[in-house]
Amino acid sequence: MKEYLSRSLEDTERIAREIASALKGNEVIAMFGGLGVGKTTFTRGFCAELGFEDGVHSPTFAIVNEYHGGKFPIYHFDMYRVMDEDDLYSTGFYDYLGKGILIIEWSENIIDFIPEDAIHIEISRGEDETARIITRK
After folding, report:
1. Domains of the chain with CATH codes
2. In the β-sheet with 74-78, what is the strand arrangement from edge to edge?
3. Which of 29, 31, 44, 89 could be bridged to 103 by S-S, CB 3.0 to 4.6 A?
4. Nearby residues of 15 by Cβ (< 8 Å), 6 or more positions away
5. Mean pLDDT for each consecutive 10-residue tract of the chain (137 residues)?
């Protein structure tokens, strides 16, 4: 387990870049944290490290955004509206496993279906408005 302190959006992106730089290309990144804590900001930095500078945004309505053309394919999921395994199955989640990096916002909603070897990233609010505590497990 490793804990990081972010004091800005730029810090959050830098921390994400550091974590992304050590990946092999088929990991599952399970993100946890409440509304507005910086999951999409983290994902933006993460994707930038792997060669995707533009177009990274929350897949809230699409459920999954695909980013191709960088170091590895990245599949960015938003599981906010996913409530059970039937919902999860309809997202195509199982079809994406092993085909690139999966980064999943709102992993709380599918905790029973996250692969055991997934990297867990928890983002919580810090002591002031812009501070965040980012924990990698």
Report:
1. 2-136 (3.40.50.300)
2. 2-6, 132-136, 119-125, 28-32, 101-105, 74-78, 64-67
3. 29
4. 4, 6, 42, 45, 134
5. 96 97 96 94 94 77 86 95 92 95 96 97 94 97
